[in-house]
Amino acid sequence: MSDFLTISREAHDRLVSATYQSRGFTADEAAEGAKLAAEAARHGIRTHHALKALHLDHLFGSAVGGCTPGAEIEVVPSRFEGSEIWNANKKLGQSVAYRAIDRCIELADKYGIGQVAVDNAFHYLWGGGYVMEAAERGYIAYTNCTSALAEVVPFGGKFPTLGTNPHSWGLPTQDAVGFPLVSDWATSVVAMGRVQALKREGKTLPPNAAVDKDGNPTTDPNEVAALLPFGAHKGYAMCLLNELYGGLIGGSLPTLRGRAAQAPDGEKTTTAFYFHVIHPEAISGGAFAKGRSQMENLKEVIADIFGHGNEGCILPGQFEAEARRRSDEAGGLHFTAAEIAEFNQLAEEIGHAGLEPI
């Protein structure tokens, strides 16, 4: 952690919340935006903490009509009791996502499974944060979204027509391994937030992650015009799924998303979210070997997978859990000097106290 400095979470949250409120967001929205950003930083998510969130809002959100401070969520009538459809009315994505995962849990408690589809949304940033929270409360959770812009070239294609489109799963494995299993990744080799972070730090991208304006591979974050899907055709298929979910929910054409100035009359430019929560009891067959309980059986399955010489393998969510432990032991959130300098530029712009390492 020698490259990182520790910042008080309270000071971080005050600055992030004040920045959101300076842009017209309500106190609740600002607090939810600050919470998600802090949890991302706490878990070592360098690509989707507050700097990314506030940058995204500045470019595509409240300043240009892509996100509406103080908007109210409209629940659209549905004949399915375990499902809800929401019109977010461009409300801050983090506020919508926290409410959606909570509602899915309420539905799962009643019906065994709950889902919420969200139309007319604005990017919710770190999907892993929402499913992790559900998993910590004992549920199986999943979310996907369409990203703010089409920045990914389809496998075999030339032009970016897909978002970085993440998938996020969370499972309640705390008793088995000490932390919730969280599988959370963009379907591009790297997220655009990672490109921005590397640019900030003066570092290069891995090979075969991005192309320049002429379609040539580049590792220079300053030359990136589009990203490539991970895993060739397999990652491309996972990326495509989010666009298809979004299309079924009501989302915009990918190449118009986030680009209101280019959209013909009548076309939408908003993102779509999907949330899904399962109560573990709803999928329990009950016939576990040797009289084990459901969670005891889960623990044994994990132990079997990571036995047989595989003890050194990494579980999804392990890096995040280790980053969380380091943050908590340090008593704050970890940022680089370059990130702190950028935070302090934001503070100066709104006349707020800056951040100082503790």
Automatic annotation (TrEMBL):
UniProt keyword Magnesium present: no
Transferase as UniProt keyword: no
SUPFAM superfamilies: L-sulfolactate dehydrogenase-like
Keywords associated with the record: Oxidoreductase
Superkingdom of origin organism: Bacteria
Pfam families: Ldh_2 (PF02615)
PANTHER family per record: MALATE DEHYDROGENASE, OXIDOREDUCTASE-RELATED
Sequence similarity: Belongs to the LDH2/MDH2 oxidoreductase family.
Protein name, entry field: Delta(1)-pyrroline-2-carboxylate reductase
Species the sequence originates in: Haloferula sargassicola
